[in-house]
UniProtKB/TrEMBL annotation, chain A:
One of its GO terms (molecular function) is hexosyltransferase activity. It comes from the Bacteria. Gene3D superfamilies: Glycogen Phosphorylase B. It holds the Pfam family EryCIII-like_C. The keyword Glycosyltransferase applies. This is MGT family glycosyltransferase. It comes from Ancylobacter tetraedralis. Residues 302-412 form the Erythromycin biosynthesis protein CIII-like C-terminal domain. InterPro entries: EryCIII-like_C (IPR010610), UDP-glycosyltransferase (IPR050271), UDP_glucos_trans (IPR002213). The keyword Transferase applies. Keywords: Glycosyltransferase, Transferase.
From TrEMBL, chain B:
Residues 295-319 are annotated as: Disordered. The keyword DNA-binding applies. InterPro entries: GntR_C, TF_FadR/GntR_C, Tscrpt_reg_HTH_GntR, WH-like_DNA-bd_sf, WH_DNA-bd_sf. The lineage of its organism: Bacteria, Pseudomonadati, Pseudomonadota, Alphaproteobacteria, Hyphomicrobiales. Residues 9-76 form the HTH gntR-type domain. This is DNA-binding GntR family transcriptional regulator. PROSITE patterns: HTH_GNTR (PS50949). The keyword Electron transport does not apply. SUPFAM superfamilies: GntR ligand-binding domain-like (SSF48008), Winged helix' DNA-binding domain (SSF46785). Keywords: DNA-binding, Transcription, Transcription regulation.
């Protein structure tokens, strides 16, 4: 009797990537494989709650600082202002230090990852991250790259640069971006390549932190928002998914004191919840709109007072179940949120904070699947008018219904699991 | 007089909940007769309040009245009786339940005057005072010197939930280990059946409300078994606060079933009088339940690890 194939899933430490991988892992388990999770500190228990075995990375001593109140205060003071900047201005202020931190993470956990992979002996590894961990290549097992960011993460002459928020036709903007990005990311890239060399790996070309896999690459870009490419990605190595939306526990919306009108869901992810001032401003506008607003405020529930009667705040929502019941989804352009909106045929109002949120903010406009706005530079009348227009746009709703039907006919989690197992010859 | 009426109404509603719990405990089926006398004895009250509670349950389609025959159960556990009981409570929008819901939703401030509440709910000062007295019995609100009332912190923020688990980790194993711990065998057997039935429900039926009800019922039973009156009192008051808190989103189905399995394991050990093992299993159960919704790192957060970069002046909103 042969043992079931063991698939080690390694999502980065964000809920988007983590829960995408949970969706794929469930389908792998349903097909007889044994999915296990490699888990960053701070994600302990997330995968166990879904019934999967976790292996915890142990960073080098001193590499991780405690995330107490001072940590979050530091975050607020340091980075909130950066989220109001243009994508290009964020290169220096936010993107470059973030890449430096991501490189730090790789260096801090690579030894631990190597030890865990030696312990697990997986038949394949699914890496859902934006950077390669040398231990993965060094262990010699087949590995798949899961591109759960916007499709811009895989470069092409016709696809706008990753994180730029540009449209495909903006040639001048592209040239400026590439020059600025190259300069801003050079120190982090140089340091990363030095680490790769020290681990016996070839360095990566300028600006790249993660190679595509020779075995399998899964892209979570639904066909409705895919870009035209100058070079077609070879189908034997690249599988496009219609998103990667998982089933969640049912959500029964509580009755509100003012319980009239469509349901609007707003979540800016764990990161966006920190800007409580901005969310308070938005809630004040929501109070004037005849709809029910469900707002994810993360761990900051106690920051709010005198919440209007048509608004409900929660620390956590089973997002796919809430989005499925919504008439509008206001989010930060996280790729997971964007895909969930499309999967359930719900218009998006994207208010990008950072990273690929800018790319999706542009894409939602260009593909007519919703609208985007600056996250803080708006007037109450402007925000109210935008929400109102999105709620009343019947053509938009019809277009999204067709997209939803197409995505639901070919669920990304199923296709991903099939792609992995067929390559392993285990089906 | 009005206060007595309101308190009685609250008691009848609690009794109605108790009757539903009894039906669930006994695994009663739809169509089964609900004899007034037997139910009154089981609940330890006279037949008069039972009639009032039966009327509430009839209004909520949980019981059916048949002329000259009495009351009959309209649905069993498999037909959503556990969910129905909660819906009945929600629908009865007594003033105190409205205040509590608004407090949980952060619609009203921490400190309130009676007149402000009277304005908000278009109620008289006496009605508001009665509602506040009901809430004060469960420690939700306390009267300050003067006419102001202060709401106590609710159990719904991550720090409060973490504190709650720490409190329970200290006391619940002790509740079991204190000499004289005694489990109510009828209640234990009924809860065992309910928890097993819960584990067999399809994923789509595993609601947050159903999970929370069974979870708290189990932990209340443990508290009631403690021979130390002070441990028992502190835990029962805390579980009342948990029941009152905003309904948390349910954990994924796997964890819901796993938590029930842990309850069942604890029950097994208690019934074998392996109290030390049961106390250790309680620690394991609470620790697992306490690991929820961690903070994230990753692309968004990781820049923090690098320390501060000077931030440019914040762009002002155009409002």
């Amino acid at each position: 009797m042969t043992r079931p194939p063991v698939i080690a899933l390694f999502p980065e430490a964000s809920f988007g990537a983590a829960l995408n991988c949970v969706g794929i892992a469930r389908e792998l388990a349903a097909r007889g494989a044994e999915p296990v999770f490699l888990c960053h500190p701070g994600f302990t228990g997330v995968f166990a709650e879904y019934g999967f075995r976790e292996y915890h990375l142990q960073p080098e001593a001193g590499a991780v600082q405690a995330r107490g109140e001072a940590y979050w205060q530091n975050f607020v003071n340091t980075h909130l202002a950066h989220f109001d900047l243009t994508p290009q201005a964020q290169l220096e202020a936010y993107v470059a230090p973030t890449w430096e931190a991501i490189v730090d993470t790789v260096i801090a956990v690579d030894d631990s990852l190597e030890a865990l992979l030696a312990q697990i002996q997986p038949d394949a590894i699914l890496l859902d991250n934006v950077i390669m961990f040398p231990a993965i290549l060094r262990c010699g097992r087949p590995w798949a790259r899961v591109v759960s960011c916007a499709e811009t993460e895989i470069p092409d002459a016709l696809v706008p640069p990753y994180l730029s928020g540009l449209g495909p036709d903006d040639v001048a903007g592209r040239a400026l971006w590439e020059k600025a990005a190259s300069a801003a990311l050079r120190p982090a890239h140089h340091r990363y390549n030095a680490f790769r060399r020290a681990r016996g790996l070839r360095p990566l070309p300028q600006g790249q932190f993660l190679e595509c896999s020779d075995w399998l690459n899964l892209l979570l870009a639904p066909s409705a928002v895919r870009y035209r490419r100058a070079e077609t990605l070879p189908a034997d190595r690249f599988t496009f998914l219609e998103g990667c939306v998982r089933d969640e526990v049912p959500f029964d919306p509580p009755a509100l004191p003012a319980n009239e009108g469509p349901l609007v869901y707003m979540s800016f992810g764990s990161l966006g919840a920190i800007d409580t001032d901005q969310i308070r401003r938005m809630i004040a506008v929501f109070a004037t709109i005849p709809a029910r607003f469900f707002v994810n405020v993360g761990g900051f529930l106690d920051e709010y007072r005198e919440v209007p009667d048509n608004v409900f705040l929660g620390s956590w929502f089973p997002q796919p179940s809430v989005v499925a019941q919504s008439a509008l989804f206001i989010h930060h352009g996280g790729n997971n949120s964007f895909c969930e909106a499309l999967f359930h045929g719900v218009p998006s109002l994207v208010m990008a904070y950072c990273w690929d949120g800018h790319d999706n903010a542009r894409r939602v406009q260009d593909t007519g699947t919703g609208r985007s706005m600056h996250r803080s530079d708006w007037s109450p009348d402007g925000l109210r008018a935008t929400i109102d227009a999105l709620l009343k746009d019947r053509d938009l709703r019809d277009r999204l219904a067709a997209i939803s039907a197409q995505m639901k006919a070919d669920p990304g989690v199923v296709r991903a699991a099939d792609a992995v197992l067929s390559r392993l010859g285990a089906r | 007089m009005a206060e007595r009426r309101r308190a009685a109404r609250h008691n009848h509603q609690s009794l109605a909940q108790q009757i539903v719990a009894l039906a669930l405990d006994r695994g009663l089926k739809a169509g089964e007769h609900m004899p007034e006398q037997a139910i009154a004895e089981a609940c330890g009250v006279s037949r008069t309040p039972i009639r009032a509670a039966f009327k509430i349950l009839e209004k909520n389609n949980i019981l059916i009245w048949k002329e000259e025959q009495g009351y009959f159960l309209a649905r069993s556990a498999q037909e959503g009786l556990s969910d129905a009981s909660i819906a009945a409570a929600d629908r009865d929008q007594g003033l105190f339940t409205r205040i509590l819901a608004d407090r949980a939703a952060r619609r009203i401030a921490d400190v309130q005057s009676v007149s402000a509440l009277a304005r908000r709910y278009s109620a008289s000062r006496v009605e508001v005072l009665n509602a506040l007295k009901i809430l004060s019995r469960d420690g939700i609100v306390s009267q300050l010197p003067g006419s102001a009332w202060a709401f106590q912190p609710l159990l719904d923020t991550p720090p409060a939930i973490a504190e709650s688990f720490a409190f329970r980790l200290t006391l619940e194993p002790q509740a079991i280990l204190t000499p004289g711990f005694a489990l109510d065998p009828t209640r234990a057997s009924a809860l065992r059946a309910q928890m097993r039935a819960f584990q067999l429900l399809p994923d789509g039926r595993l609601t947050a409300a159903g999970f929370q009800r069974l979870d708290i019922d189990f932990h209340v039973m443990i508290a009631e078994g403690s021979a130390n009156r002070f441990v028992q009192g502190a835990l029962l008051a805390h579980h009342r606060l948990r029941r009152m808190a905003q309904k948390e989103a349910a954990p994924p189905p796997f964890r819901q079933r796993q938590a029930m399995e842990e309850h069942l394991d604890i029950l097994d050990s208690l019934e074998r009088t392996q109290l030390e093992l049961a106390a250790d299993q309680m620690v394991l159960h609470l620790r697992r339940s306490g690991i929820r919704r961690p903070e994230t790192a990753g692309r968004g957060m990781s820049a923090l690890l690098r320390g501060a970069q000077p931030a440019p002046a914040r762009k002002g909103p155009a409002s």
